[in-house]
Design a protein that fits this description.
Layout lengths: L1 E5 L13 H9 L2 E4 L6 H10 L3 E3 L7 H6 L3 E6 L2 E6 L8 H8 L5 E4 L6 E4 L5 E4 L13 E8 L2 E9 L10
Parallel strand pairs: 1-2, 2-3, 5-6, 6-8
Antiparallel strand pairs: 1-9, 4-5, 7-8, 9-10
InterPro entries: Calcineurin-like_PHP_lpxH, Metallo-depent_PP-like, Phosphodiesterase_MJ0936/Vps29
Pfam families: Metallophos_2
Cofactor: a divalent metal cation
Amino acid sequence: MRLLAMADTHVPRRARGLPPVLWRAVEAADVVVHAGDWVEAALLDELAARSARLIAVYGNNDGPELRARLPEIARAELDGLRLAVVHETGAATGRENRCARAFPDTDVLIFGHSHIPWDSTTGTGLRLLNPGSPTDRRRQPEHTYLTAEIRAGALCDVTLHAVPRSTERNPG
């Protein structure tokens, strides 16, 4: 099962749309995860229409329309892997312990908010992943998103992708 994760797209405030390379990744994925901060519902509608399966949450920059349509925390079992998605996990200091306590029955937690890619594993075995942002890199060197494979309940081949600079902004 091919997984694609993104967060903090901030469309249309930080970009007019997703980069073409990301749309190609969406179309190749079996499951697309968006960890919040959409800003407007139009991207949610387009991503839902173009994804085989979408798992998504709202973020702190998402207003009433998105909050009415999306949960704060999403959970799914994917080929035996227990996945949770949330926008914000708090400060980096203490994140592993906080998340291990808050998500004891989860194998992988995908989160956003910071725009900073993150990949760590807690003492309980919970994998924490933040894909960064494909449209608003803030203080990061590149715009990013994440792909992985799920095989028999295990997360494999986790790859952080930099959005090529020539395709960072979608003109349409």
